Structure formats: structure tokens, C-alpha cells
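Justification of resources, computational component.

The compute hours requested in this renewal are based largely on the per-chain cost of generating structure records like the one below. Each record pairs the submitted sequence with a full C-alpha cell output. That output is archived, and it is also reused by downstream analysis tasks.
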Amino acid sequence: MREFISAEEKRAVTLRSTNMGLYAESWFTELLVVVSLAVVAVYVWFSHSYKYWQKKGVPYLEPQFPFGNVYESFVGKRSMPMDVTDAYRKLKGNRFGGMYFFNRPSLVIVDPDLIRTILVKDFWKFQDRGIQVDESEPLARHLFLLGGNKWRRLRVKLTPTFTSGKMRMMFQTMVDCGREMADILEEPASRGEVMEMREIGARYATDIIASVAFGIEVNCQRNPEAAFRQWGRKIFQPSLLATINAVVNAINPRLISFLKLRNNATEISHYFRKMVRDTVAYREENNVTRNDFMQLLIQLKNNGCVDSDKPGVQKGDDEDDTWKLSIDDVAAQAFVFFAAGFETSSTTISFALHELAHHSDIQKRLQEEIDSVLKQSDGQITYDAINSMHYLDKVVSETLRKYPPVVILNRECNTEYKIPGTDIVLDKGTKILIPAYGLHHDPEYFPDPERFDPERFSEEQKAQRHPYVYLPFGEGPRICIGMRFGLLQTKVGLTHILAKYNIEPCEKTIRNLSFESRAFILTPKGGIQLRLSKRNKV
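The structure output for this chain reads:
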């Protein structure tokens, strides 16, 4: 009986195993069919999308499934904006041309006259950047990301905070931080140490912006690991989720909200919002006022306008606009002021020093100008002294040409638009890409573009060149609102360094720089390593 039962059990087990095997094989086959159908469906969908520019009669770059024209950036060989630069070069000879971010069509503008039309003449048809904004994140409600009426209203409110009068008001903070930077560099310079100049520039810019935008003294130049500096690093720290967000946004921005994808920015948001709330509460409770950007934002929160530079005028352009900033609006503007200001200025300072280290003749001429101007101002770095340094302005301009912080300018068509001089009509929602880096490195406009030559920005050469082939800050109504502040901060930093030190290459210096593939801002891979030595002035 036991043997009989065991045999029956064995047959049952065998049968169950056979059934499970058949079920597993069937399940695997069905899964394989489903996956194959999904792949075919995606391929058909992408193939249909890839006919978009052909149907429009627009010259375009042949896409590669499923990457479109951004394979190089997808695999990390270069940044996605540099793919646009490559597209610009391939499309040269046309006024414009199409490319694809995965399956999404975008129009690359090549002709400077058409660039001017889009950025200025027909600006209101292209006023938005076309970036998906997470409305649930308070820090996303800042001037760079917003579009439509929200952007327009905020721009009007913030414009008076960046006048020359307001820059003078904040200038002493820049000078104090620049002096601190020069003093800190003295000891390592005397020892002949190699220094990473981008980090030094970042600490300098962070101290300035923490003071004027958040009203706090962080002193990260003396304490590189200060909490505020660490949070600044986190803002631009590449992450897998940020990469996934960029890819999904390129395919379909609406999927970000649908899939509930978010950058790992919750802690950053809480930190900066709390800092702003605490600062504003302290000032209002104790009647504290300071000559800084935060004080201007508090005025916009409480009064709906800032005190005008012109005596007797209290309102902005729109006398009937009583809208005021919320505390989260204040935090968002302070945050983007910090994020955009410290990174762009620090990279520009380091790129300029990199070029000056390899061009001793340009460095010497700039130092002679700095010495001459400071002698006239009794050794004091003043607002007027900085603005009278014309060769310094050329050096900074050439640095921004060769190394524009933002490689492309992006816009979105908010209505059907017929491209002037053609029968081509762009659909509402079409992405527009203006390749600043490509224009800046085009030998047609800047002969021998890899050569560093500040004289490109002499009045004579500027007059001979199309004004819309040099766009480090954008152009038109949406030009960078903090341009004046950024340039001033950069010039003050360079003046403090060059007045006291010579800049030299070292054994760790990389002559021909390459750039981080995952960075939004043009960022040198491995930093910029240089050696400083104390100047022996006669």
C-alpha cells in the first residue's frame, strides 16, 4: 500500500511539475509577446514622430531610434546642450533646422536675424522656456522657470531690484568678500601650492550671495565645509533621478507629473525656505534693515513694490498692480538668485584665470590697467573704478564667449507661427533652441574661435559683427535679470586676485578643457588647477 501511494504521489508530482513547466513556458511566451508588441508599438510611434520635420518641409538631422539626435549625451559622452551645438554645425547653411530629443521635435535656429526676431521682435509668441514646472514645489516658482502672465508680472516686480543704484548698494559686500578671498590665498600662494580655482571662486560668490540674498554671513571662504556651501554643492550635484527626469521631460513633460517623478530636492527646499522665513521674521520683528537683495524682496512682500531709485517715485510701471510676493515667492527668488549667481560667476572667474595663466601678455596688460585705475582711486576698489576698467570688460566678455555658462537658450512657441520669409508654420508648443555655444564658436563670426582674444570686443570689432551671435545672458525682454550683478561680482573677484597675484599653469593644469557631461552649466571636468604667486610691484 505504501509503495502504491508513493507511486501515485510520484505521478502527481510529475504531473504538477509538467503543468507548472507548461504554465511557466506559456507565461514566458505571453510576456515575450507583450514585450515584443510594446517594442513594436514604441518603434511605430517613434517612426511616426520622426516624420514631423519632413512633413513640415524643414531641413533636419536624421534621427536614430530611440535617441533621436541625442545619443551622445544619453550615453554620457557629452552634455545634451552640446548635442545642440553639434546640430548647429551640421545645419549651418540653413536658416534653421530640425532635430529630435528622443521622439520630440525641436527647431534649431541658425540665422542671427531669425534669432533676433524670436528673442525680440516676436518675443511675445516665444516668451516661455517650455520647461515643465512642478507647481507643488514652492522653490520652482521663480523667474527663470515661470511663463506667461506669471512670469510677466514677476519680472515687472523684480526689475527695479537690479538697477545701477541697487548694485551700488550691494557693492561693498562684494568688495569685502573679494578682499577676504585675496587674503586667504596669500598663504598657499607663498608656499607655491596648486589651487582649484573653481572652488575658490564658488566660495567667494557663495559668501556674497548668502549675504545679499539671504541676509546671513556664512564665511565659507574660511570654512569650506560650512553648511551653506554644502547645500550649494547639492543643488548642482548630478543624480540618476535628475537624469531620468531630463529624459522623460525630453520625451513628454506631462509624464513627469503622471509618473510622480521628482528631483531629490525636498531637503534643499525645506532648508532654503526655512532660512528665508527665519530671516524675514527676525528683520520684521526687530525692525532690522540692510542694503541687500533680501530687503528689496521684503519690500515686494509687504508693499508690492520696491523703493525707487528716483526720489518721489514709489510705484512700478503698473500703478494699479497691488499684487505682493508671498513668503514662498520670496524664498524662490532668493534661491534662484543664489543658484544662478554663484555657479555662473565662479565658473567665469575660473575660466578667465585659466586663459590668463596661458596668456601672460594679456594678464600683464590687464594687471597694468588694474594698477593704474586703483592708483587713481587711492587703492580702493570702487564701483566707478570697476566700471572704468575697459580691458577687464573685454577679458570677461571674451571669457563668456569662449565659455558661455548656459550653452543653449530655449523657448517655446505659444501660438501657431509662420517663419518669416517661408511658408512653414510652426505648431503651438514647438520647442525652439538657440545654440549660444555654437554661435560663439562659429569661425564665420569669431575667426579662429578657440583662440582667446579680448580684442574681439573692441568697439570696432563689435560694430562689424552681428549683435545676435553673442548671447551669454540671452537677449530681449527675457535677458538675464541678474546680468549686471553677475558681471560686477566677477570683475570684483578678478580685480582682487590680479591686483595681488600672478596666475601660472602648473603640472596639474589641463590646457584644453573638457566639460562635465551631466552638468547644466558649462563645467570644466576635473576643475581648473593653477598656481598663484605674489606680485612684486615696483
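Residues 124 and 414 are 8 Å apart (CA to CA). The radius of gyration is 28 Å.
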